[in-house]
Design brief:
Distance between the termini: 30 Å
Number of helices: 11
Strand order of the largest sheet: 3-2-1-4-5-6-9
Structural class: alpha/beta
Number of strands: 9
Order of helices and strands: HHHEHEHEHEHEHEEHEHEH
Radius of gyration: 18 Å
Helix content: 40-55%
Strand content: 15-25%
Length: 266
């Protein structure tokens, strides 16, 4: 395919010097959701290498336990919470625990995500599709952020939300649940960025293009397309967290999304 031939141009591989990562993240308290798989897991291992102190959140307790064990061997402080973020009672308890236990948080990487592709006419009796997607992609971001904002204020910390570049473009069929939740989260982050700036807290959005993870590759069409690896996506998140930009988006999205929006209204 032509796209694969030009992968290096569409998806240029990101790099960060290890010394720079150490300066920014060594010894910092970092909360990561979606930590047991995909981008989140790759991000955690990058943080372990620079001896960050990590707080991991995901459903897979076995994988979380292993990650924390690996982190402690490297000299990191490491805690985990095996929580299904769709469970509102469990999420509420987690928020209380984070608020009470961690007086300072330097970075909150929100990677937890749920994707679903289904036409609205095929979801007439599936309101739970929308509830579950919104709970993971939007509500958990807000709930956890509210719980740790006081800790982020103390450390002049950052919230980094992993969104999707597709939310920048006109709507298309099949993605009503997913895009609604992601766009809601984008707007919350943009609003929080304005309100928290005076407190020294920065809120950043990563409009991520295709990343080949287990979640994305369920869709057979995506498996055949070029994209970033989970490790490359993790590097992009770390780069964003180290710079002053309000967001990350691919270079081609910066050019095309405004044009696509104009034609999408036609």
């Amino acid at each position: 395919m032509i796209l694969h031939t030009f992968k290096w141009l569409i998806y240029p591989s990101p790099h960060v010097k290890p010394e720079k990562l150490k300066r920014h993240f060594s010894g910092k308290r970092i909360v990561v959701t979606g930590a047991s798989k995909g981008i989140g897991k790759a991000l955690v291992y990058s943080l372990i290498e620079v001896r960050a102190n990590i707080v991991l959140i995901a459903r897979d307790e076995k994988e979380l336990s292993k990650l924390c064990s690996d982190a402690r061997i490297k000299g990191c402080e490491a805690d985990y919470y095996a929580v299904d973020l769709r469970d509102r009672e469990a999420l509420s308890a987690l928020c209380s625990e984070l608020h009470d236990r961690y007086s300072e948080v330097d970075y909150f990487f929100c990677n937890a995500g749920k994707s679903i592709c289904r036409l609205i006419e095929d979801a007439l009796d599936r309101l739970h599709d929308f509830d579950r997607t919104m709970d993971v992609n939007y509500r958990s971001l807000v709930a956890l952020s509210l719980a740790i904002i006081p800790s982020l204020v103390k450390s002049k910390g950052r919230i980094i939300y992993t969104s999707s570049v597709s939310t920048l473009y006109p709507a298309f069929g099949g993605w009503s649940a997913y895009h609604s939740s992601k766009v809601a989260a984008n707007m919350w982050c943009r609003t929080a960025s304005k309100e928290l700036k005076s407190k020294g807290v920065k809120v950043q959005i990563a409009y991520m293009p295709l990343v080949h993870t287990a979640m994305a590759d369920v869709n057979p069409r995506y498996k055949e397309l070029p994209g970033y690896s989970a490790s490359e996506a993790a590097t992009l998140l770390l780069r964003l967290a180290m710079n002053g930009n309000s967001c990350f988006m691919p270079w081609w999205a910066r050019i095309s999304w405004r044009i696509a929006s104009i034609f999408g209204k036609a």
